[in-house]
Amino acid sequence: MSERRVVVTDCPGGPLLVRGADEVVGVDGSTARVERAVVAVCRCGRSDRMPWCDDSHRDRRRKTKP
Ligand code: FES
Questions:
Q1: What is the model's pTM?
Q2: pLDDT tens string 31-59
Q3: How far apart are the C-alpha atoms of 13 and 59, rounded to whole Å?
């Protein structure tokens, strides 16, 4: 059995970047297959492509600034 290394990087105000994973499990238990070396997982809840980030978090940032 080979060891795999999964790295999660916190992007402040944005997604979690996940490198090296095979799948992502959502809060509802659904599983999304990872087909890229790095994926951006939404954590703001605004994405139309859950569990993936679609940059909708940027709209929230713009609206909160004066
Ligand atoms: S973190 Fe980017 S859309 Fe949610």
A1: 0.82
A2: 999 999 999 999 999 999 999 999 999 98
A3: 11
The overall longest dimension of the chain from CA atoms, in Å, is 54
Burial 32-53 (b: 16+ CB within 10 A, else e): bebeeeebbbbbeeebeebbbb
* 1-21 pLDDT tens trace: 678 899 999 999 999 999 999
Kindly state if the Cβ of 43 falls inside 6 Å of ligand 1: yes
8 CA distance to ligand 1 middle (Å): 15
The structure tokens 């970047």 sit at 17
- 59 Cα: distance to centroid of ligand 1 (angstroms): 9
